[in-house]
Design goal:
Order of helices and strands of chain B: HHHH
Number of strands of chain B: 0
Number of strands of chain A: 5
Structural class of chain A: alpha+beta
CATH class of chain A: Alpha Beta
Largest sheet of chain A: 5 strands, antiparallel
Radius of gyration of chain B: 58 Å
Shape of chain A: globular
Oligomer: heterodimer
Number of domains of chain A: 1
Helix content of chain A: 25-40%
Distance between the termini of chain A: 34 Å
Order of helices and strands of chain A: EEHHHEEEHHH
Shape of chain B: rod-shaped
CATH topology of chain A: Beta-Lactamase
Number of helices of chain A: 6
Radius of gyration of chain A: 16 Å
Largest sheet of chain B: none
């Protein structure tokens, strides 16, 4: 369980370049596996993560529209890459470049999701932070989170239109 | 701890106590249990199912490194399989920006990832060359299409001109037929004149001395009619030559017209071949 009233400390955590933070979830996003790097960086014991929803490490500064895009994509059976800011048990934060893929059974049914998180490039984190700040500001213009999320999603689509790229290509150019 | 029946620490070299036996038995059972769990995970992995992991070993220090090593091995294999599959799947759809993420892959995994990415780069390069060639071919096809349109126009106007030439030949032939009729008339007149001159000569002979002067005139008229007859024969020959030449010209124009049409068709076939369509 996430500690009640957990507030971000503003302290950043890092992990090694050759490490991968790995987790697996069931189709509903409940963690079924967390590797040792995940446990160490997020500051939770394995038993504290397994059985919990994956948003246990969600940071309040992450725009909702990014998670909407993520879920829409993986539920359609596609992979997705995303820069994600996560919150550790202590309130420290850490940036990851996440690669989320659906896990399929022999018949092609989605039986869960798998996420590999790698150390992101610093320059990419700086660029994405700017964009996330804008998206978050757009979301917070309204108290209705659904409306806010729809507005920031529109904003993200607008940004992509300007680049002339699909999200899947754009994310590698950040 | 002293064991019963073995005073002064004799137990260290002898039989373990019942308590220790029980503890060791429990520990042994726990290890057997872990070995079975790790074996099961490895067996699943061996069949290509990379989903299973060894969970719950954190509280057992003796097993935790084994569990972590097995999980790390599976995690990196899993990551490689997902990465390589995705990169190739994208490449298959002509999207070469999706590379295998080499970060986090070590040793052989990293080397294979590098190989795939290099191949990916080469495929991207080849795709670019193909696109460029396709673009050039398109431009060539378009310029050929323009040339074809011009060729069609030229062929049309050339065929039109040959039709006019044919009409001219027909008029020429008609004129030569009419000329032939006129010449025939002249020839008849020359024959009649010749007969008249003959009659005049006979009448002049009857008239004796008085008709002598007239006989000279009749002779002159006869000579003129003979010259006229000779002239008309030459004209008839010339007219026949003209008619023959007109016929030959008409045939030649027909052949030229067909050749122009055929040349236009060949140009169209070339254009279609360049565009890559069936002719």
């Amino acid at each position: 369980m996430r500690p009640a009233g957990l507030k971000p400390t503003g302290i950043e955590r890092r992990f090694q370049e050759d490490e991968i933070i790995v987790s697996k979830t069931d189709p509903k996003g409940i963690i079924t596996y967390a590797n040792s790097v995940f446990c160490r960086v997020a500051g939770y014991a394995e038993a504290e993560l397994v059985g919990q929803p994956h948003n246990i490490v969600r940071h309040p500064d992450m725009p909702r529209c990014v998670f909407k895009l993520l879920w829409d994509t993986i539920q359609s059976g596609q992979e997705i890459f995303a820069y994600v800011l996560n919150l550790a048990k202590t309130g420290d934060h850490y940036w990851v470049f996440a690669h989320v893929t659906p896990t399929l059974d022999a018949r092609g049914n989605i039986i869960g999701y798998h996420s590999n998180r790698r150390v992101p490039e610093r320059s990419a984190v700086e660029s994405i932070q700017e964009i996330y700040r804008m998206l978050l500001a757009e979301e917070r213009k309204t108290t209705d989170w659904r409306k806010g999320m729809a507005a920031s999603h529109e904003m993200l689509l607008g940004l992509l239109r300007k680049t002339g790229m699909q999200y899947e290509e754009w994310i590698f150019s950040v | 701890m002293l064991k019963q029946g073995f005073p002064n620490g004799v137990s260290q070299a002898g039989e373990p106590s019942a308590e220790e036996c029980s503890r060791l038995r429990q520990e042994n059972e726990a290890y057997r249990d872990w070995v079975a769990r790790v074996t099961s995970v490895c067996e699943q992995a061996a069949t290509g199912d990379l989903e299973a992991r060894v969970l719950g070993a954190a509280q057992t220090p003796a097993v935790e490194p084994l569990a972590r090593a097995v999980n790390d091995m599976l995690d990196r294999t899993d990551a490689f399989v997902r990465e390589a599959g995705a990169a190739l799947e994208y490449a298959g759809r002509g999207k070469f920006f999706r590379r295998v993420l080499e970060r986090g892959l070590l040793g052989s995994f990293r080397r294979a990832a590098t190989l795939i990415n290099r191949a990916n780069g080469e495929m991207a390069q080849q795709a670019k060359v193909l696109r460029e060639e396709e673009r050039k071919r398109r431009i060539l096809a378009e310029s050929l299409e323009g040339a074809i349109r011009k060729s069609a126009k030229l062929a049309d106007s050339a065929v039109g001109e040959t039709a006019q030439a044919t009409a001219t030949i027909v008029r020429l032939t008609d004129a030569s037929v009419r000329m032939g009729q006129v010449v025939k008339l002249i020839s008849e007149i020359a024959t009649q004149t010749n007969l008249l001159a003959l009659n005049a000569t006979i009448e002049a002979a009857h008239a004796g001395e008085a008709g002598k002067g007239f006989a000279v005139v009749a002779s002159e008229v006869k000579q003129l009619s003979n010259q006229t007859a000779a002239g008309t024969r030459r004209v008839v020959d010339d007219i026949e030559n003209i008619r023959h030449a007109a016929e030959e010209t008409d045939k030649a124009i027909g052949t030229i017209s067909q050749t122009i049409q055929r040349m236009h068709e060949v140009t169209q076939e070339i254009a279609l071949a360049v565009e890559g369509r069936e002719t």
